[in-house]
Amino acid sequence: MASSNNDSFGFDFSKLGPVLGGYDLPAMEDDVLVLPEGFGTEKSFFDRAWYNTGLSFGSAAVIGGSYGFLEGMRQTGRTTFKLRMNAIINSTTSRARRVGNPVGVLAIVATSFYEIGTSYFPERHNQTLVTIGTGAATGFLYNITSGIRHTLAGTIAGATVMGGAVLLNKVWEKRQLKAALPKK
Fold this sequence. Notes:
Elements: H1 45-74, H2 81-120, H3 127-142, H4 148-180
Helix pairs in contact: 1-2, 2-3, 3-4
């Protein structure tokens, strides 16, 4: 039963699947990359929603949890180790939850507005305006029940944050392009 694939164990691991050598893959040339049909196309709404929500919630929860950890460490009234650990854990989980949940909701709302914007303006040259409008609409909707001043502040803050993200993305793309070009 042993084969050349990994006969030191007396079992043919190639029968388990392609990861372990079960299928003979076609030989590829150096410059050719074969991808499945549809690979690399635009992501669907749900793919973007999952990615944006998970990344936003996870990042915000880590930041909030870190702040909560520091907050729990600063509490000096605890005398025993158990009470101090309890204070640290309570502060960490409380801050992570209070920061992560709203940011995750904002990510879902922003992804929905972005989908609406790209469906009305599918041209590539409008994507900057769509992204900034997404931030403005998200900030508007998030603060709409807080009064006119807070709503305007949220709208401006959302547009500013998304505008900053667009600017950083453009700078990053130029750096990547410059690094990819051959040096003279």
